[in-house]
């Protein structure tokens, strides 16, 4: 179970990672549309950021359901 003090920061981190990843996806697509090659760090952020954000949010949802069932 995730301590209550860490839930809010983890939610904020997951949201920030998701927004940055979506921005990276848009940047990669825009650069590719202009017949360019995106830098590696932008592509890596686009590829690995969204799954990371999804896993963080899924863990928070599972923890919330588990905590509610225990009450």
Walkthrough of the structure:
This protein has helices at 4-33, 40-70. It is mainly alpha-helical.
Layout of SSEs?
Elements: H1 4-33, H2 40-70
Main structural class: mainly alpha
Number of strands: 0
Strand content: under 5%
Distance between the termini: 13 Å
- Which parts are unreliable, with pLDDT below 50 for 5 consecutive residues or more? none
Keywords: Membrane, Transmembrane, Transmembrane helix
Transmembrane segments: 12-34, 46-66
List keywords for this structure.
transmembrane, transmembrane helix, 2 helices, 71 residues, mainly alpha, membrane
Gist?
By secondary structure, the protein is an all-alpha fold. The chain has helices at 4-33, 40-70. Helix 1 (4-33) runs antiparallel to helix 2.
